[in-house]
Amino acid sequence: MYTDSADTSWMWLAREGMVPVVALAVIVCIASVDLSVVSPWSSAPIFGNGETAETTRSTPSGRTPSVPLVLPVAGVPASDLVDTFEDARSGGRTHHAIDIMAPSGTPVVAAAEGTVMRRRTGGLGGKSVYVVSPDTSFVYYYAHLAGYANGAAEGTPVDAGDRLGVVGATGNAESSNLHFAIWAVDDLKRPWARHPVNPYPLLRGG
Ligand SMILES: [Zn+2]
User: Fold this and answer.
1) In b/e form, how buried is each residue of 129-139, taking b as 16+ CB within 10 angstroms?
2) Which domain holds residue 138?
3) How remote is the CA of residue 110 from the centroid of ligand 1, in Å?
4) pLDDT tens column, 155-192
5) Measured in angstroms, how far is the CA atom of residue 76 from the centroid of ligand 1?
6) Which pLDDT tens digit goes with each residue over 99-129?
7) How far is the CA of 34 from the centre of ligand 1 (A)?
8) Does the pLDDT of residue 84 top 90, yes or no?
9) Which residues neighbour ligand 1 (ion) by CB within 5 Å?
């Protein structure tokens, strides 16, 4: 069930085979503006550009964060995790994330240190948080939250294990879970140049 009008319009374009044409037009428009004004702190949808935050068609990355990750849902043992990275989603998309099933209200914590880059409400991800790594080469994305932790305001540094919010079923979630994605980012000013990283082996090994 899609409630975000922008996402719906993109699905219409996808059916009409117009995505490459429109995507090129968008890229040309973006490239024609001064990139210095495109800040990761902007309230604009930094991971817009035709992709939803929920899923991506990008090529997976071989790069992985150099730090061990904390399992981002309190109380869930690593042995309960299921690898859903390559699962198909609607509109020809691939999941490129992990869904960690947990009751609504369960604390969501940062998997790794970084800075809260953006909190977003709406779209397929519902209430979501983007955390960028200290070297800005990875973005961690936490979605379907029921609510945000008080300390997880935009611009706030977080350590691994710090609370970001609580598990919910906002956005297009069919049941309460944390949708957790990791992206290797080439350049935060070019947010479409990102590559999904499978969180599953990193969380199972950590
Ligand atoms: Zn998901």
Assistant:
1) bbbbbeeebbb
2) 5-205
3) 17
4) 999 999 999 999 999 999 999 999 999 999 988 887 77
5) 17
6) 999 999 999 999 999 999 999 999 999 999 9
7) 34
8) yes
9) 97, 99, 179
Could you please report the per-residue DSSP string of 24-88? HHHHHHHHTS-GGG--TTSSS-TT-TT--SS-B-SPPPS---SSPPPPSBTT--GGG----TT-E
Which domain CATH number covers 49? 2.70.70.10
Compute, in angstroms, the gap from residue 81 CA to the centroid of ligand 1. 13
**CA 146 / ligand 1 centre spacing (Å):** 15
Q: How far apart are the CA of 200 and the centre of ligand 1, in A?
A: 12
Cα-to-centroid distance, 40 and ligand 1 (Å): 23
Instruction: List, in sequence order, every residue forming a beta bridge with 145; answer none if it has no partner.
Output: 127, 167
What is the Cα–Cα distance from 92 to 83, expressed in whole angstroms? 19
Burial of 56 (0-12, 13-18, 19+ CB in 10 A): buried
Number of domain units in the chain: 1
Give the Cα separation of 100 and 157 in Å (integer): 24
Q: Which amino acid is at 9?
A: S
Distance 75 CA to ligand 1 centre (A): 19
For 44-73, the pLDDT digits (tens) are: 345 543 345 555 556 777 789 999 999 999
Record the tokens describing residue 139, joined without a space.
């973005």
The rounded Å distance from CA 57 to ligand 1 centre is: 14
